[in-house]
Amino acid sequence: MTVAEFLAWGGDGSGRTLELVDGEVRAQDPASDTHGTIDGNLSFLIGAHLRVHRPNCRVVVQPGIRPRLRANWNYRVPELGVTCAPNQKDAHMMPEPILLIEILSPKNRKDTWNNVPLFASVPSVQEIVLVDSESIQLDVLRRAEDGSWPTDPTRITTGQVLELHTIGLELPLPEIYRGTHLQSR
After folding, report:
1. N or C end of the chain: smaller count of CB under 10 Å?
2. Residue 129 is part of which domain span?
Protein backbone atom coordinates (compact mmCIF):
# COMPACT_ATOMS: atom_id res chain seq x y z
CA MET A 1 0.00 0.00 0.00
CA THR A 2 1.26 3.49 -0.81
CA VAL A 3 0.90 6.53 1.46
CA ALA A 4 -1.78 7.94 -0.88
CA GLU A 5 -3.73 4.67 -0.69
CA PHE A 6 -3.27 4.53 3.09
CA LEU A 7 -4.63 8.06 3.58
CA ALA A 8 -7.58 7.40 1.25
CA TRP A 9 -8.36 4.05 2.93
CA GLY A 10 -9.82 5.48 6.14
CA GLY A 11 -8.56 2.81 8.53
CA ASP A 12 -9.70 -0.56 9.78
CA GLY A 13 -12.48 0.70 12.06
CA SER A 14 -10.66 -0.38 15.24
CA GLY A 15 -9.99 3.16 16.42
CA ARG A 16 -6.32 2.32 16.99
CA THR A 17 -3.56 4.53 15.66
CA LEU A 18 -2.28 3.11 12.39
CA GLU A 19 1.04 3.64 10.65
CA LEU A 20 2.31 2.62 7.26
CA VAL A 21 5.61 0.76 7.57
CA ASP A 22 7.30 -0.04 4.26
CA GLY A 23 3.89 -0.41 2.60
CA GLU A 24 2.32 -2.52 5.37
CA VAL A 25 -0.27 -1.25 7.84
CA ARG A 26 0.82 -1.53 11.48
CA ALA A 27 -1.49 -0.86 14.42
CA GLN A 28 -0.03 0.71 17.54
CA ASP A 29 -0.84 -1.04 20.80
CA PRO A 30 -2.97 0.94 23.25
CA ALA A 31 -0.85 3.11 25.54
CA SER A 32 -0.42 2.21 29.20
CA ASP A 33 -1.57 4.61 31.91
CA THR A 34 2.07 5.57 32.53
CA HIS A 35 2.67 6.15 28.82
CA GLY A 36 -0.46 8.31 28.55
CA THR A 37 0.43 10.33 31.65
CA ILE A 38 3.91 11.10 30.31
CA ASP A 39 2.39 12.03 26.94
CA GLY A 40 -0.12 14.36 28.61
CA ASN A 41 2.55 15.99 30.78
CA LEU A 42 4.81 16.67 27.81
CA SER A 43 1.96 18.00 25.69
CA PHE A 44 0.87 20.36 28.47
CA LEU A 45 4.38 21.59 29.35
CA ILE A 46 5.47 22.13 25.75
CA GLY A 47 2.16 23.70 24.74
CA ALA A 48 2.22 26.15 27.67
CA HIS A 49 5.79 27.12 26.87
CA LEU A 50 5.05 27.67 23.19
CA ARG A 51 2.06 29.91 23.92
CA VAL A 52 4.26 32.28 25.90
CA HIS A 53 7.68 32.05 24.22
CA ARG A 54 7.04 30.81 20.66
CA PRO A 55 3.41 31.74 19.86
CA ASN A 56 3.87 30.95 16.16
CA CYS A 57 4.72 27.34 17.00
CA ARG A 58 2.43 24.54 18.14
CA VAL A 59 2.57 21.07 19.62
CA VAL A 60 0.60 18.35 17.83
CA VAL A 61 -0.50 15.05 19.37
CA GLN A 62 0.12 12.05 17.09
CA PRO A 63 1.26 14.02 14.06
CA GLY A 64 1.52 12.22 10.76
CA ILE A 65 5.13 12.21 9.56
CA ARG A 66 6.17 11.26 6.04
CA PRO A 67 9.90 10.55 6.06
CA ARG A 68 12.12 11.22 3.07
CA LEU A 69 13.35 7.62 3.10
CA ARG A 70 10.90 5.43 1.14
CA ALA A 71 8.47 8.35 1.28
CA ASN A 72 5.78 6.64 -0.80
CA TRP A 73 5.68 3.65 1.56
CA ASN A 74 6.00 5.15 5.05
CA TYR A 75 3.68 7.24 7.21
CA ARG A 76 4.76 7.24 10.85
CA VAL A 77 2.99 8.61 13.92
CA PRO A 78 5.11 9.72 16.91
CA GLU A 79 3.49 10.76 20.19
CA LEU A 80 4.21 14.48 19.80
CA GLY A 81 5.62 16.88 17.27
CA VAL A 82 6.35 20.59 17.23
CA THR A 83 6.13 22.76 14.15
CA CYS A 84 6.21 26.50 13.53
CA ALA A 85 4.43 26.15 10.18
CA PRO A 86 0.77 27.18 9.97
CA ASN A 87 -1.95 24.58 10.32
CA GLN A 88 -3.35 23.47 6.98
CA LYS A 89 -6.97 22.48 6.48
CA ASP A 90 -7.43 18.76 5.76
CA ALA A 91 -3.69 18.02 6.02
CA HIS A 92 -2.77 14.56 7.33
CA MET A 93 0.91 15.27 7.76
CA MET A 94 2.62 17.75 10.03
CA PRO A 95 4.30 20.45 7.94
CA GLU A 96 7.96 21.11 8.75
CA PRO A 97 8.32 19.36 12.12
CA ILE A 98 11.29 20.62 14.16
CA LEU A 99 10.93 18.38 17.23
CA LEU A 100 9.58 14.83 17.44
CA ILE A 101 8.96 12.92 20.66
CA GLU A 102 8.35 9.20 21.03
CA ILE A 103 7.51 7.35 24.25
CA LEU A 104 9.05 3.91 24.59
CA SER A 105 6.85 1.13 25.93
CA PRO A 106 7.84 -2.50 26.50
CA LYS A 107 6.01 -3.74 23.39
CA ASN A 108 7.02 -0.94 21.01
CA ARG A 109 10.67 -0.27 21.92
CA LYS A 110 12.21 -1.84 18.79
CA ASP A 111 9.60 -0.38 16.40
CA THR A 112 10.03 3.06 17.94
CA TRP A 113 13.82 3.02 17.61
CA ASN A 114 13.37 1.92 13.98
CA ASN A 115 11.48 5.19 13.37
CA VAL A 116 14.47 7.33 14.38
CA PRO A 117 16.43 7.14 11.07
CA LEU A 118 13.22 7.88 9.18
CA PHE A 119 12.46 10.92 11.36
CA ALA A 120 16.07 12.08 10.93
CA SER A 121 15.57 11.99 7.15
CA VAL A 122 13.04 14.86 7.38
CA PRO A 123 15.09 18.02 6.64
CA SER A 124 13.24 20.28 9.10
CA VAL A 125 13.63 17.92 12.11
CA GLN A 126 16.29 19.20 14.50
CA GLU A 127 15.64 17.15 17.65
CA ILE A 128 14.29 13.69 18.39
CA VAL A 129 13.52 12.64 21.96
CA LEU A 130 12.73 9.10 23.12
CA VAL A 131 11.17 8.98 26.59
CA ASP A 132 11.25 5.72 28.54
CA SER A 133 8.01 4.69 30.25
CA GLU A 134 9.60 2.04 32.47
CA SER A 135 12.36 4.11 34.07
CA ILE A 136 13.23 7.78 34.39
CA GLN A 137 15.45 8.28 31.39
CA LEU A 138 15.36 9.89 27.97
CA ASP A 139 17.52 9.68 24.87
CA VAL A 140 18.02 12.86 22.85
CA LEU A 141 19.38 13.23 19.33
CA ARG A 142 20.17 16.67 17.89
CA ARG A 143 21.09 17.56 14.34
CA ALA A 144 24.52 19.26 14.20
CA GLU A 145 25.07 22.56 12.41
CA ASP A 146 26.51 20.67 9.42
CA GLY A 147 23.24 18.69 9.15
CA SER A 148 24.63 15.43 10.52
CA TRP A 149 23.19 13.38 13.36
CA PRO A 150 25.18 11.91 16.27
CA THR A 151 26.12 8.26 16.23
CA ASP A 152 24.68 7.76 19.71
CA PRO A 153 21.99 9.65 21.60
CA THR A 154 22.62 11.68 24.74
CA ARG A 155 21.09 9.90 27.73
CA ILE A 156 19.37 12.02 30.38
CA THR A 157 18.47 10.42 33.71
CA THR A 158 17.12 11.18 37.18
CA GLY A 159 18.29 14.52 38.53
CA GLN A 160 18.99 15.97 35.10
CA VAL A 161 17.07 18.39 32.89
CA LEU A 162 15.83 17.85 29.35
CA GLU A 163 16.95 20.81 27.23
CA LEU A 164 14.90 21.25 24.07
CA HIS A 165 17.10 23.56 22.01
CA THR A 166 14.60 23.87 19.15
CA ILE A 167 12.06 25.66 21.34
CA GLY A 168 14.24 27.03 24.16
CA LEU A 169 12.70 24.91 26.94
CA GLU A 170 14.30 23.21 29.92
CA LEU A 171 12.22 20.48 31.57
CA PRO A 172 13.20 18.85 34.87
CA LEU A 173 12.53 15.13 34.58
CA PRO A 174 10.18 15.06 37.62
CA GLU A 175 7.80 17.31 35.65
CA ILE A 176 7.76 14.87 32.73
CA TYR A 177 7.09 11.89 35.00
CA ARG A 178 4.67 13.72 37.36
CA GLY A 179 1.72 11.55 38.38
CA THR A 180 3.34 8.25 37.35
CA HIS A 181 4.47 5.37 39.56
CA LEU A 182 8.04 6.28 38.54
CA GLN A 183 7.85 9.71 40.18
CA SER A 184 8.68 8.41 43.64
CA ARG A 185 11.77 6.44 42.51
Report:
1. C
2. 33-61+77-176
